[in-house]
Each structure stands twice: as structure tokens, then as C-alpha cells.
Amino acid sequence: MTSPAAPPASHPDWQQAFDLRAGVAYLNHGSFGPPARVTTAAREQWSRRLASDPMDFFLREMEEQLDRARDELGGFVGTAGRNLAFVDNATFAMNGIAQGFPLQAGDVVLANDHEYGAVLRIWRERCRQVGAELQVASLPPRFEDPAEVVDALLAAVTPRTRLLVVSHITSPTAVILPVAAICRRFKERGIAVCIDGPHAPAAVPVAIDRLGCDFYCASLHKWLAAPLGSGFLYAHPRWQGKLQPPVVSWGNSLSGRSSSWLDPFNWMGTRDPAGFLAVPTAIGFLQGLVAPAQADWCGPPSGLAVFTHYSHALTRYARLRMVELTGCEPMVADSSDWYSTMIACPLPASVPEPESPHAHQWQHELWRRHRIEVPIVNWHGRRSIRVSAHLYNTAAQVDLLVEAVAELLKELPPASG
Ligand SMILES: Cc1ncc(COP(=O)(O)O)c(C=O)c1O
What we know:
Number of domains: 2
Bound molecules: pyridoxal-5'-phosphate
CATH superfamily of the largest domain: Type I PLP-dependent aspartate aminotransferase-like (Major domain)
CATH topology of the largest domain: Aspartate Aminotransferase, domain 2
Mean pLDDT: 96
Low-confidence stretches: none
Largest sheet: 7 strands, mixed
Radius of gyration: 22 Å
CATH class of the largest domain: Alpha Beta
Oligomer: single chain
CATH architecture of the largest domain: 3-Layer(aba) Sandwich
Distance between the termini: 29 Å
Strand content: 5-15%
Number of strands: 12
Strand order of the largest sheet: 2-8-7-6-5-3-4
Number of helices: 15
Structural class: alpha/beta
């Protein structure tokens, strides 16, 4: 077997751009991405500005500053800022949608078996409250043809289906789903589509208006490396008047502006909006990247594409090295159409079930022995290791992971029989 293609070397500035603890191989940006240093600095600056005169900030300045930040975010995700509400995270956004979407007894919400567990729980609970039903369709076992994914979802549609909830990039399996085709086909059927997109912004292009979805939820503390606790809820104008945040407060503008669907989201009681206001800094950080001047760089010269090129190359390296070790092929074709900055690499069937529902024992061992942070996912009775790669990660960290997994595999008891 030929040795897997090495990714370009990481630029030393990229590691300096984050505040990660020395000695840790942090390969789990997909769960909790650390913010870039410049973003943290921007958040702190906004907090100081607020603290210097909270009355002035909340009553006269905040709404305008939130508008400005939303406009920049809108430019990044392909819609007008006025269609976006800042919320703490995708979970918050999904709860708001679940409470506002007009579900009735007998209706069906359609999801699939790659959806995030907490999202399924939100909809199961909402359906239970109104006598509706959550239906979970199975997607194909291999991801090579987008039409097969769309067809699997369409095959589950019945006259009772009101809403499709679908990830842009799935959590347990790290698959980029063909959301543009899905939105098109569900629109033809008159079924609303809610995209659960926390893994998408920065990892793949997000063009909300072009997608034509009804709702889009995201956490910006993932791939955008914005402050932890920053996310957004997009609602198509036809839904905006129906949505309320799960937290009820005054519901009107603090600065006396004419009413908007965003008012209840702008004010959910007194809190610091600095994380939201620092989102444009996070966007600027990734869009301002310049390619390293090294012979092994054959990617784009500047901009966000520097990040996606590097991260995908490193993710692909992780994929190839893990396959070389285990012989187990991921469920997605080896193409940036199907995976971007994160890959789920299956482990051999001999890797045992998790001993606790909290985290697989290997996850603890990788941390205890090697200070590697990486999730072991237990999905459909099979274990996989989900490797994330951001700018601060290196090929050496992937090599460390592969050697650590090789060590754990050697410790497995010999198969009986
Ligand atoms: C697909 C998906 N949806 C929703 C969430 C929830 O995101 P958050 O915890 O930021 O609200 C996650 C978190 O990892 C996720 O992967």
C-alpha cells in the first residue's frame, strides 16, 4: 500500500491564532471549537464597552450594533441580516422553531437516522405535546450518489408530513447532505424544510436564500471559531411572525424602534451580547487568511478557502491513515462533496460497545495516555472515531492519534472461535 498523501505543513501563525493548552492534540473542533484569539479580544472589548455605561449601551446602542453584526453574518451565509436572529446556539434556535411551527395532532415531522440526538429529542417532545409524530427515515449505507439520499427522504413522505428536519452536515457520521436538492424536492411537495446547520458555516458554503429553506439553525462557535455561545436562527419571512424565543421577556424594542420579529430575540432579559457582536471579527479572521509561503502549498492564495483547503487536506490525511490502519472505509466517498473538515472513520467491529452511555472508554484512554481530544461515536451498533481538523491542527497530531489507536487495537483480546 502506498503511504497516504501528506497534507501541507501547518503555518506556525495558525497555531498562535488560538489559545489552546500546550501539549493537547485537540481533534474535536466539531463538538466545541475554540474561538480564535482575535475573536476573544473583540468579545472582551465589546463587554468592556457595555460595562462602561450599560444604560447607554442597552437602550441606545445595542440594537444598531446587533443589526450591523447580523448584516455581516447575513453576507456570509447568503441572506439579509434582518432574516437572522442571534441566539446562543443551534439548540436554542431549534427549540424556538419547534415551539413556533404550527404542528397539529396527526401531523408528521420527518427526520433521519443521522440526526443529532438532542434535535430528535426536541421534536419528539414537541410532537408528543400536540399529538403529532416524529418519523425517522433511514439513509443509504454508503454516500456516493446525492439522488439516493433525496430519494430515501422522499420515500418516507406521506400526506401527513408537514416538516423535514435535516442536517447540513451530520453529527455522528460527519456527512455533508445534499441540502440544495433536498430543499428543491421538498418545496415541490409543499413540505417545509428546517436545516440543522451548526457544522456548516465556514466548513462549506452556506447560501440560505438560494437554498430556499424555511428555517436554518447554526452554532457559530463551531467551524467559524466565533465565541462559544453564539449562533443564529434563520426564518424565512413567511414564518418570522410565528416565532418567539423560548425565553419570554418584554418583546419590544428597547430603543423605541418600530416592531420587528427580532425584538423578542434581541432582549431576553439582561445579558451580555458581546459574543454576537464579535461574530464579524470571526468572519474577518477566516476571510483574511493568507496562504503560507511554502513549496507544499497548492491551495488558494487567500481568504476562507485557505482554511477549507488546509482543513480538508488534513481531514483527508486522517481518513487515509485510519483506513490504512483499520482497513475500514468511511461511509462517504472520498470527495469534498461528501466531507469537509471532519471525518467519521469506522473502527473494527471488535472495538467493544461503550461501557457507559457518557463516553466510550477509548475516548478516556486517548486523553489519559496521550492528551488527545477526539470523540468515539457509537452509532447503529458500530464505533467510529470522528476526527476534526481546524487551522491549528497538524499532521503530527493525526499521526499521534493513529499510533494511539494502533496501540489500543493491539490491546483488544484476540477474537474467540
Ligand atoms: C448536527 C447538530 N445539531 C445540533 C447541535 C447542537 O449544537 P449546540 O450544542 O451548539 O446547540 C450539534 C452539536 O454538536 C450538532 O452536531
